[in-house]
Amino acid sequence: MQNTRLRGLRRFFNVSTLTFRLWDFTGTAMLNFFIWVAVLLYLSPLTYMITTALKTSAQLSDGAAPLYPAVVETYTYQGVAYEIYNVPNGSGVKQWALVNSFQKYSEFIDPANPGAGLLHWDGFWRGLKKVYRPSITFSNFENLWKNIDYPQKMRNTMVVVGLGELGMFLSSIAVAYGFSRFRIPGGRFLFFILIGTIMIPDSITLVPSFVIYARVLGWNGSFLPLIVPAFFGNAIYIFLLRQNFKAIPRDLDEAAMLDGAGPLRILTSVILPQAVPVVVTVGLLQFFNAWNEMRMSSLYLGIRPDLQTMAFSAQAFVSYGFTPEVLQASAIVLMIIPVIVLFLSQRYFMQDMIVTGIEK
Amino acid sequence: MEERIRRHPSIFQRLAPKWDLSMRQREGLVGLLFLSPWILGFILLKAVPIIAALGFSFTNFKMLEPENTRFIGLTNYINILKDTDAGASLFGSISYFVLSVPVEMIVALGLAVLFSSKRLKSKLLLRTLFFMPSIIPAIAIFFIVSGLANPGSGWIDRLILIPLHLPPLVGLFGIFPVILALWTIGPGFLIMLGAMQSVPPEIYEAARVDGAGPIMRFFSITVPMISPAIFFSLVINIISSFGGVALLDRGLSFSSSLSPMEGYIVQQMFSYSKLGYASALAWVMFIVVMAITLAVFSSSRYWVHFAEEDDDAEY
Questions:
Q1: Do B237 and B184 form a contact (C-beta atoms < 8 A)?
Q2: How many interface pairs between A and B have CB atoms less than 8 angstroms apart?
Q3: Total-model pTM
Q4: What is the ipTM of this complex?
Q5: Which of A190, A305, A312, A331 has the smallest count of CB within 10 Å of its CB?
């Protein structure tokens, strides 16, 4: 196919094979170059968060410092550490340590040749640029670890995530199977309702569900409002699973049915093994959502600091006006790392997603 | 097949041995059994609260004094009409929807087109990198934007404006919705890319033989063939532009929702404990979102080419 196209284009432009190949190669190189520039630009704002997490507050507030975590290079002369500056003199720019600074002139020591003693330099030292070297610190993370009970937050998050996954597996998969394999009276209408519920904004159910959860059921200060809804199925997961279950050929179910397998057995031993990518996708979506979840936890977990999740503690920590910025950055990085690692460590996510016939 | 199943009793039979049900009825019953968690959830978590909210919206229900609740008719709705803050928050919600959804759709579609080129190398890594920001919680984006846009010490000033000797810009925090929208393309991009890859190459080849150029092929083959995926991406982008959770949760509480209307509802609910008024506001938002949904869904018959699902008649 590629060849037909190349031949056609070559005839069109009436150029030699070599010229054409060169042109084709240039096009490919330019496309790849463009996309890599685009992806680097696209991700570049993240570097602010990562570098800030690896800086000390002093490094962050030093306006002359480079954007990456860096400290001023120093030289120890006679037991005292002096900062090194870029000093221009007659024979180029030298890196000298500033020992005595005055208005009109300053005295430096040359680290390469300390034996030469103090060097006189005319000019105002504040106009000089300091010499920085990269230096990262993990002290922010140590600090956070001391201030926040991470094992507890992690445990809470795992409870919310784990039970949410269980609910998703038990209900969303079963419902999607029901929609994809059974002739149900009014099934099309029910599916239309399912799609409709995806569009319902959460704020409409907010007031009554808060009244029910907090006042009637007394679930304020418990995980239940975060977990229980997962056991009733999630419309968008059901939709994704159903689309992919429907694409699995029916022959195998029928063969299994003839061997006496019931519907549950067909689901677990025929459908699920063939639907691994979509089940993993939905499982990961549920994981990411339960991990980042703030809507329910901000309403119901505010009164119980011991039940708060990673996301909650990161948000609370960042929202304190007086938290140093470097600590905010590290709290966010700590919260994001597990999600990113999980995302990067698998290859199923949203592979072969089948999205057709939303209305049917 | 029915004959064979009768000889091999399965759950279909065991479920209701005494009832005189046909195969078809049993199948429907088992199917409903599988649907039951969702049906129950729909009634308990959606239908009842929506109706209850409608009921609350006609009362002066207050969280702290529920015993004084009484029916006040349309007063709440009339107050909304007089409430300029409510109008402003609704306008803010609709503006964010109008501005962010087209950006998300066009960038995701353009990226998917680039990715369907055979010339592009290391696609798996690149699509992972392009998707990654979509799972980052909004608090990280807030933090990053404040670091980039801070006047004087922000990275935009230090990297771009100061080296170019440009005056510092005010209102750089306005880049927040732009970055957020660009970092939300992930799901739409992957869904549309997946759809593009499943278009049979013979169709493109045939169009090429007939002399269709790349732009013509894009509009008359790619777009119609992937229209269900475009439609689905549109739906999830609309939901998230109104602050809802479509595929991925940004970890925003109601009070910090992207949709100013949601924030206003929560403020009325918790700061002023006006549950009745909050319910009326929620109903207004519900009607607006449902009107937009209805418009989008009914427009779909003109531009979305749904795949035939012939077997639906059978199953």
A1: yes
A2: 322
A3: 0.87
A4: 0.87
A5: A305
